[in-house]
Design goal:
Length: 265
Amino acid sequence: MPTEDRKDPAAPAVRFERVTKRFGDHTVLDGLDLEVGRGERVTLIGPSGSGKTTILRLLMTLERVTDGLVLVDGQPYSHMPRGAGGKLVPADERHLAVLRRRIGMVFQQFNLFPHMSVLENVVEAPVHVLGEGREEARRRARDLLDLVGLGDKAEARPTRLSGGQQQRVAIARALAMRPEILLLDEVTSALDPELVAEVLDVLRDIARNTDITLLCVTHEMGFARDVSDRILMFDRGRIVESGPAGELLESPTHARTRAFLGSVR
Ligand code: ADP
């Protein structure tokens, strides 16, 4: 049976079960349990080095767990559940690729292809990865560029755009892959302060007008409050506090959350 047919509609979009990630003897995630419901918007906050980006990188299969299990749509991702021998078995690559395609990511660095037009940057992956027809992909790319407010820049080279505009192209490019889950990793950190708002406004619109599952890492607390159903405060690879966005930001209970919020406001 094709993998797509096994999608469990009741399963959370993402589930981490006792996930540990070590780099050498440095434990970055320490038996982490985490669940993100379908259509839920979750923001990860916490000091630098607390493991937030590693979570997103595991979901992009840029890293593999040291121990524990990651599930996407209820299906083992990266590794299979432990067999009787207790050893982690890597998931089948084809199966992984199917799940992996449901996830898109926007990075701090936009990494657009400089030799291609803005439009071609958005068209590239749907054509080459999803096998969409070029005309259909171009039509959708134009719609997505309109959505991010760059309909008039379709033929421009990315290098002629501001950082904020380039990041909006990167958002359109991620959406062109029709992801069900979108990961946002400090998408405004590389931008000049005056360009931050235009990017966050586009993301607010997307959050408001789609049912996409969002997992964000950001230091923009106003944005986190606007888009998130839930905020998770990380410290040293563990969740120290979690709660509805307004509640956690207004009345944090953990001393580390209070200290962290004090440092970013
Ligand atoms: P955050 O996103 O919260 O700032 P990260 O997940 O980026 O934290 O990093 C957590 C820790 O993992 C940091 O101490 C970082 O140096 C370390 N780390 C991340 N990636 C690697 C890697 N590829 N090799 C070694 N250490 C890494």
